[in-house]
Amino acid sequence: MDEGNRYLPIADVLRQRIRSGDLAEGDQLPSIPELMRTHGVSNAVARKVLRTLVSEGLAIARSGSGTYVRERPERQILVRSWHRNARGGSPFAIEMAGQARIGSWDYTSRTVCAPEGVRRRLGLEGPGDDDVPDAMETSYVFRGDSEPVQLSTSYEPLSLVRGTPIVLPEEGPQARKGVVERMRTIGVTVTHSAELVSARLVTVVEARQLDVAPGDIVLVIERTYYADTRPVETADIVIPVARFQVLYGTSTWDAPAGE
Amino acid sequence: MDEGNRYLPIADVLRQRIRSGDLAEGDQLPSIPELMRTHGVSNAVARKVLRTLVSEGLAIARSGSGTYVRERPERQILVRSWHRNARGGSPFAIEMAGQARIGSWDYTSRTVCAPEGVRRRLGLEGPGDDDVPDAMETSYVFRGDSEPVQLSTSYEPLSLVRGTPIVLPEEGPQARKGVVERMRTIGVTVTHSAELVSARLVTVVEARQLDVAPGDIVLVIERTYYADTRPVETADIVIPVARFQVLYGTSTWDAPAGE
DNA sequence: TCGAATTTGTGCGTATGTATC
DNA sequence: GGATACATACGCACAAATTCG
């Protein structure tokens, strides 16, 4: 006789009240005992209702205090690329306005045997040998206004940079110059790049570095620079979705058809 | 005396066994009764252990069968744009090889009063009136090889398309042609587009449409087409990261510096 | 500063429904 | 149909965090 899911309709009611604005951002949701009284259910059901809303990202539970409608601060926009002939039309200018600037960064460099995925992206042959380093790995924490913005782990093949003045990306005369400039000094002309975008839950370590809550979602961008057909650098870039969106600008003649 | 979190160490053990490969992809995890016996805990704790692993994306629960280590099939690549002068170098060609093709789609169109976020993107003034529709909304389900690939909800301002042959995007002579072609027939030249990328948990409705598990993560792309400075179409595109990655190709002279 | 009240988090035991094999 | 396993539900207890008099 029981439909089995007594928590769903109750969650629906609260969801609706949030969407309609009846419950505004920051407002406290009914507590567990309150839901038990008003809907005549047990604590397990009332708990499940609130947990469901939290897991959907609509609410935040504060232990000892209550469950509240989640506040969504304006997210800043990280501009990763736009086409140069998409010159500053006003809608673009508006979108650029809130753009996040990367001001400072920390880094550490070391030689490693590149992991499997990176091997594929850099075109390194074979499975690799832990005792034979074949890539320079550099890990960055980027900040804007002293707030952490993104993490990046970059790999450059040692076969390319070993023995050159730019082995260590952030040391020497070419430090802080970016991959394209640095590669130019050793005669490598970067012609284009590819960015493979995905997303996943943040790891514990990343959550601490980015100052976000565990369970948050991050965008993961695998960016690879090419000199013609040869990959010369690849990086895993991690961006917290709670605070940032990523903007790609494209020219329409490149856009895929049929959508 | 109780440390309070009896499920955490048990979850750690299973996490370790998964990471080490002791439990391979597709293997069945210990069931709830099994965990109760082997660790001497109640069903609530055993349940919490498994639910924790599922929520971390490490396992999948199949009702009536068991909980299994999640399998991660190769993800296909959705190419959203690449620069025309990034012509088929071999690494690109390789990346294109596994590319997902959109073959068919369903859709439904209706006039609506555009929601808040869409109003901003389309440059519609004022808060909008529920009784006064000002946009044509079209919802798509795209499929490739009959498998759902992405969802899209598109908005075009009625002030632009009302009374034209293309009011209904998927009807009439310009159906199935894409935004750029359709707009051209009414004298609107689309010059460029912007894609704002983010991610979030999938909604229940989307999970059913895309045939993914609830709790999965989706990429959300807000794509807007512009005719010079005027936005002429915007869409919310939803892509499940469990099966797809999105590829953006860029020219290096556009790339942001300092990374 | 302390303590009482409130609220969430975790835990125990048990029962029923339902999907899978 | 029967055995197994997960999902949901009920009631109760205590710990930890927060709030406030």
Helicity of chain A, in percent?
A: 25-40%
| Strand order within the widest beta sheet of chain A | 4-5-6-9-8-7
Q: Radius of gyration of chain A over alpha carbons? A: 24 Å
Give the N-terminus to C-terminus distance of chain A in angstroms: 46 Å
Summed over residues and divided by their number, the pLDDT of chain A gives a mean of: 82
Provide the succession of SSEs of chain A.
HHHEEEHEHEEHHEHEEE
Q: Tell me the β content of chain A.
A: 25-35%
What does the model show?
2 copies of one chain form a homodimer. Chain A has a 6-stranded antiparallel beta sheet, sandwiched between helices. The first copy, chain A, has a two-stranded antiparallel sheet with strand order 1-2. Chain A is α+β, with helices and mostly antiparallel strands and 259 residues long. In chain A, a hairpin with a 2-residue loop joins strand 5 and strand 6. Helix content of chain A is 26%, strand content 32%. The first copy, chain A, has 8 helices and 10 strands. At the A-B interface, strand 3, helix 4, helix 7, strand 7 and strand 8 of A face strand 3, helix 4, helix 7, strand 7 and strand 8 of B. Chain A binds a DNA duplex (21 and 21 nucleotides) through helix 3.
Summarize the structure.
The structure is a homodimer of 259-residue chains. With 259 residues, the first copy, chain A, is α+β, with helices and mostly antiparallel strands.
